[in-house]
């Protein structure tokens, strides 16, 4: 009898310990999910917060940063914020992958909510996401939306190389025979603004790639096959980021050369 009672007591104790372990594990996991985000802000009064930035919203003339941390969630006026460190979101890489695979409709579905939440926060990946969204919209014929987002891109990120993608998008809205000359003028101005270096950073390379692709398409509309070929080859061999756009440019160059054997590269 004593042994049986002892066994029962041991089993009950084991069950209690197991429950405590599960509770502790749950608390650890929950705590980790809240604090794992690497977003960090420093307010002008010196207060530092670490947590998750949920997005940026407008309230009248005020911009509010919605910040979630262990103590809860608070709206913080942007005018009170000195520094923001915004961790790259997983959706950015997913949207970029779709964009570079020319799956523009899918890219729009992923990037639009991301941009809606974070546009206006000073961050390189947010500016790039906005640039990819703008280009995806123009590629799918959503000209009005592309123009609106292109203007926002230039307004929100005047110092980012992706700002120039807004101008490239504006030029693309004019890609028809009666307006293509005006589009080329815009593209020439973008070319003047871009830095001239022997080696470019990835962001600038991508803008150059978009620019010369647009030049090539504009010259095709005008019937300038030689100019179109040279711009496609620039994308394929010099400004080859992203690689998928370089591959597309090479296919277009081969198409032009097959249809026009007399074309030569200067």
Task: Write a compact overview of the structure shown.
The protein contains ten helices and five strands, in the order H-E-E-E-E-E-H-H-H-H-H-H-H-H-H. The protein is an alpha+beta fold and 266 residues long.
Poorly predicted runs are 13-20, 22-36
Give the overall average pLDDT: 86
Sheet of most strands: 5 strands, antiparallel
Strand order of the largest sheet: 4-3-2-1-5
Binned strand content: 5-15%
* Number of contiguous helices: 10
Residue share in helix: 55-70%
Would you give an account of this structure?
With 266 residues, the protein is α+β, with helices and mostly antiparallel strands. Helix content is 62%, strand content 14%. The protein has helices at residues 2-35, 90-100, 104-118, 124-139, 143-156, 163-172, 180-193, 202-222, 225-237, 243-259, and strands at residues 39-43, 48-59, 62-69, 72-77, 81-85. A hairpin with a 2-residue loop joins strand 3 (62-69) and strand 4. Residues 13-20 and 22-36 have low confidence and may be disordered.
Topology:
Blueprint: H1 2-35, E1 39-43, E2 48-59, E3 62-69, E4 72-77, E5 81-85, H2 90-100, H3 104-118, H4 124-139, H5 143-156, H6 163-172, H7 180-193, H8 202-222, H9 225-237, H10 243-259
Antiparallel strand pairs: 1-2, 1-5, 2-3, 3-4
Helix pairs in contact: 2-3, 2-4, 3-4, 4-5, 4-6, 5-6, 6-7, 6-8, 7-8, 8-9, 9-10
List keywords for this structure.
alpha+beta; 5-stranded antiparallel sheet; 62% helix
């Amino acid at each position: 009898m004593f042994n049986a009672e002892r066994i029962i007591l041991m089993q009950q104790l084991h069950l209690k310990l197991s429950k405590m372990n599960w509770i502790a594990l749950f608390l650890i996991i929950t705590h980790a999910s809240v604090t794992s985000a690497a977003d960090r802000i420093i307010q002008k009064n010196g207060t530092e917060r670490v947590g998750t930035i949920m997005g940026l919203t407008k309230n009248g003339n005020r911009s509010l940063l919605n910040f979630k941390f262990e103590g809860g969630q608070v709206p913080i006026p942007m005018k009170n914020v000195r520094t923001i460190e915004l961790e790259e979101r997983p959706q950015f890489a997913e949207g970029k992958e779709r964009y570079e695979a020319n799956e523009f409709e899918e890219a729009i579905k992923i990037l639009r909510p991301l941009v809606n939440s974070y546009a206006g926060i000073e961050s390189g990946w947010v500016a790039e996401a906005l640039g990819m969204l703008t280009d995806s919209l123009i590629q799918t014929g959503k000209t009005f939306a592309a123009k609106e987002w292109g203007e926002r891109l230039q307004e929100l990120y005047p110092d980012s190389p992706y700002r120039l993608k807004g101008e490239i998008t504006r030029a693309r809205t004019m890609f028809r025979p009666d307006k293509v000359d005006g589009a080329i003028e815009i593209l020439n101005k973008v070319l003047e603004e871009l830095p001239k270096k022997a080696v470019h950073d990835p962001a600038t390379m991508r803008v150059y790639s978009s620019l010369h692709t647009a030049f090539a398409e504009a010259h095709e509309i005008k019937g300038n096959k030689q100019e179109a070929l040279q711009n496609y080859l620039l994308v394929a061999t010099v400004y080859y980021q992203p690689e998928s756009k370089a591959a597309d440019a090479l296919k277009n160059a081969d198409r032009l050369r097959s249809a026009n054997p007399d074309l030569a590269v200067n």
